[in-house]
Amino acid sequence: MRPTLKKLDVFYRSTSSTLLSDILSRKLNSRWPDLSGQDVLGYGFCEKYLSSYKKTANRIILTLPEKNLTKIEYADVHGTSCITENLSLPFSDSRFDKILCIHGTGDSSNFDLLLKEFWRVLKPEGQIIIISSSRSGGWIKNMGPFSEEKSFSRKKFKKSIIKSGFQITFFTGCIYFPYRKVSRKNRLPYLFEKICETIFPYFSRLVLVEAIKRLYAEPHGMPETIRIKNVLSSNPLANKTIIEQREHD
């Protein structure tokens, strides 16, 4: 289930989204502080989060997974908007340096297919960031369009990303309280977020994952530890070097 574009637009134009979007933008900017000269794809509803990069990025393309683009009035963005049918992205292979996905994961049955398309259009060593609803934070209500989206368990979310060939480089929770109609001038929510990330990391309403496309990614998406077992022979002479064996002879 995915909220309509009209609902997304109304939400992000309202004061209810101010603090929430600011917290998510800070998270995004901490991972991607500079996108100078890069080609960026925003899938879902990303204009709010990619607007800060419009002066430095080479190109920003906003891709919408529905057909009612004309119902929305977008702010001026340094880039292009397009609509996609089904889950096929109308771009050539290895086209983008970065992909941001917010409000675009849809349901779990299509998520794996979407990840394969992200892999296809992403350059080697390119990065994706996906922000999605977390099932463990379902107790937090009144989250606007995030409340209407399909929630994933953290385990399934990670498994799908790794299965698609990506290597996870960063994973964190976001939003531990429904910050509706709370001014972003109030510093307490930011402090509250940092405390909860440390004490209650699994109870966030949203999760943010960053992953990289590596053609030589290790199994299970994480660096593999190689252990070398030192095997010694029962024959003392066999454990010596060739030079030591010759000296012994």
Task: Summarize this structure briefly.
The chain has 249 residues and is α/β, with parallel strands linked by helices.
Characterise the protein shown here.
There is one protein chain. With 249 residues, the chain is an alpha/beta fold. It is built from seven helices and seven strands.
Lateral arrangement of strands in the main beta sheet? 3-2-1-4-5-7-6
Q: Please trace the helix and strand order, writing H or E for each element.
A: HHEHEEEHEHEHEH
CATH class assignment: Alpha Beta
Largest sheet: 7 strands, mixed
Indicate the mean pLDDT.
78
Number of strands: 7
Shape: globular
Number of domains: 1
Helix content: 25-40%
Q: Please work out how many helical segments DSSP would assign.
A: 7
Gap from first CA to last CA: 78 Å
Structural class: alpha/beta
Level-2 CATH architecture: 3-Layer(aba) Sandwich
Radius of gyration, in angstroms, nearest whole number: 23 Å
Remind me, CATH topology? Rossmann fold
Features:
single chain; 249 residues; alpha/beta; Rossmann fold; seven-stranded mixed sheet; 7 helices; 28% helix; globular
What's the arrangement of secondary structure elements?
Layout: H1 5-13, H2 18-31, E1 39-44, H3 47-50, E2 59-64, E3 79-83, E4 96-102, H4 108-121, E5 122-133, H5 154-163, E6 166-174, H6 188-199, E7 206-213, H7 242-248
